[in-house]
Amino acid sequence: MAAKSLRRALFIVNPNARNGRKSVATVRQVLEDGGLTLVDAAPAQGENLSDVIRRMSKACDLVIVGGGDGTLNSAAAGLVETALPLGVLPLGTANDFARTIGIPPDAHEAAKLILSATPRPIDLGEVNGHLFFNVASIGFSAELASELSEKAKKRWGKLGYAIVAARLLARSRLFTAYVEHDGSVEEIRTMQVSVGNGRHYGGGMTVEETATADDGRLDFYSLEVDHWWRLLTLLPSLRKGTQGKWDDVRAFQTTEVTIKTSRPRAVNTDGDLTTWTPAYFRIREKAIHVFAPLDKQQGLLTPIETEVSNDR
């Protein structure tokens, strides 16, 4: 069914996102002029975005979420459970998921895409029952997420990541982890372990150069460097997603992996700390549907027909 027939859209914008208050009125106008009736809703006390989606699911045909990757993460469980298609307005600091699937960075263009595109199946990652769009990490990135406040992200944007990361690098230490996958167990000494569903994360880093959000696989890498300054030489590869070619980076693809540590370590999913080791990761293939462009570079190749009842 064409996107224009989807009439009622649950409209959720995170006012605390970096660009959450910018151009919302004009974006609304674009969507309403395109034939959508916007149904505004916000979390009640004790609710998250998934709770709102569950509560409002019978009144809407699709969900439009404005915010960053953390905002999308909060909506993931509700989207999976209700099977409502997702429209993304990239209003956050990094907007890594939007970049991965080719959603325009400009909110007005993203709104036009929601009106014209067909929802397409997208995978999600899962760790200990917590869903993620982009990447889950243990080690340096988790420490970065803990240190980088919402205030700093809103004020400094992507520069905030760099400022805090530089401070953390000087005191980072390797830790021991046990990695179980595909019938094997490996003991490693690492600064960071990352498990990716999508391609981009962390405000410009790339988990693997060929990764897409619909390839049915997780991309694992471990930074097993001797000294923190070694990461500086790895930075260009980390941005391109070619770090797996280096001798001190362990990388592989899988559909599930378990990571254990001698003491519990925090797991960062899409920029927020959500669980602890031991961490069991798995891929959730075609878990949700997202309004996204048809782009061979993004791996979004097969349109789907989304059946939507206008009587709902």
UniProtKB/TrEMBL annotation:
<dbReference type="InterPro" id="IPR045540">
    <property type="entry name" value="YegS/DAGK_C"/>
</dbReference>
<feature type="domain" description="DAGKc">
    <location>
        <begin position="4"/>
        <end position="131"/>
    </location>
</feature>
<keyword id="KW-0418">Kinase</keyword>
<keyword id="KW-0594">Phospholipid biosynthesis</keyword>
<keyword id="KW-1208">Phospholipid metabolism</keyword>
<dbReference type="InterPro" id="IPR017438">
    <property type="entry name" value="ATP-NAD_kinase_N"/>
</dbReference>
<keyword id="KW-0067">ATP-binding</keyword>
<keyword id="KW-0547">Nucleotide-binding</keyword>
<keyword id="KW-0479">Metal-binding</keyword>
<dbReference type="GO" id="GO:0008654">
    <property type="term" value="P:phospholipid biosynthetic process"/>
</dbReference>
<dbReference type="GO" id="GO:0004143">
    <property type="term" value="F:ATP-dependent diacylglycerol kinase activity"/>
</dbReference>
<dbReference type="InterPro" id="IPR005218">
    <property type="entry name" value="Diacylglycerol/lipid_kinase"/>
</dbReference>
<dbReference type="Pfam" id="PF00781">
    <property type="entry name" value="DAGK_cat"/>
</dbReference>
<keyword id="KW-0460">Magnesium</keyword>
<dbReference type="InterPro" id="IPR050187">
    <property type="entry name" value="Lipid_Phosphate_FormReg"/>
</dbReference>
<keyword id="KW-0443">Lipid metabolism</keyword>
<dbReference type="GO" id="GO:0005886">
    <property type="term" value="C:plasma membrane"/>
</dbReference>
<dbReference type="InterPro" id="IPR016064">
    <property type="entry name" value="NAD/diacylglycerol_kinase_sf"/>
</dbReference>
<dbReference type="Pfam" id="PF19279">
    <property type="entry name" value="YegS_C"/>
</dbReference>
<dbReference type="GO" id="GO:0005524">
    <property type="term" value="F:ATP binding"/>
</dbReference>
<dbReference type="GO" id="GO:0046872">
    <property type="term" value="F:metal ion binding"/>
</dbReference>
<dbReference type="InterPro" id="IPR001206">
    <property type="entry name" value="Diacylglycerol_kinase_cat_dom"/>
</dbReference>
<keyword id="KW-0444">Lipid biosynthesis</keyword>
<protein>
    <submittedName>
        <fullName>Lipid kinase</fullName>
    </submittedName>
</protein>
<keyword id="KW-0808">Transferase</keyword>
